[in-house]
Amino acid sequence: MSAPVFYIADPDLQQAQVDQEIPLSGSEGRHAVSVLRVKTGEDVEIVDGCGLRIHGTVVSVSGKENLRVRVSKVLIEPIAPLRITVVQALPKGEHGELSIDLLTQVGVDVIVPWAAGRSITRWAPDRIEKARGKWQAAVTAAAKQARRARWPVLGDLATTVQVAELITGAGAAIVLHEEAITPLLAVPIADREGASDVVLIVGPEGGIGEDEREIFRAAGAFEARLGPSVLRSSAAGAVATAVLSATRNWGRPSVGGSTL
User: Fold this and answer.
1) Domain that holds residue 63
2) Would you report the helix, strand and coil content of the chain in percent, each value rounded to 5?
3) Phi, psi dihedral angles at 98 (to 5 degrees)
């Protein structure tokens, strides 16, 4: 069974050394002690969400939320050759958190919520931070479940014009659309010294409006199709990410990296 993964948001963690003891407390410590019932002598992993993965052994447990971990190995996981940004139109109801969960599990690098013209869900100005907080919580939970050391960055709510600006700066931008003829894998992605980036744009349940499609095409985006069936908005981005990752990113070890 794999060791449980815990998250510490501390820049100083990057300086961790073998045999150093790291305290784990707060919500993560409480989850370790009171929920998972981690005990002295058990192996755990600590990540910072920026690529750092620490292997260690619990050396002490106290109270309901405090333990100390002795470091046995420190790794920096490499950045994937293909960096994937998914622009996700706001899906209705709980499909929003589902889409974020799936995107995080399959390894997306950046998630940008998009207020598409046909989105049923709207983030009111006074509720944007609360709604975005739910998406961030979904990223955190899914990243830990997927054992990721390098977590997705969740962007701010974007307008259609702002999405078009993302398109102009990308190695390739792909609008997933059911009427497209070009297969996803046939879209050319510029290679820049062994690395590249792509923006995937996923529309809402009502589809991407013709005016939005025209804006994206004018900015340089391709339109592509995943397959013969039409996927839900909450699933399309994750499936497309998996397809691209299988050809460009998944030939390397999923867990590991360079040792510090």
Assistant:
1) 5-76
2) 35, 30, 40
3) -65, -45
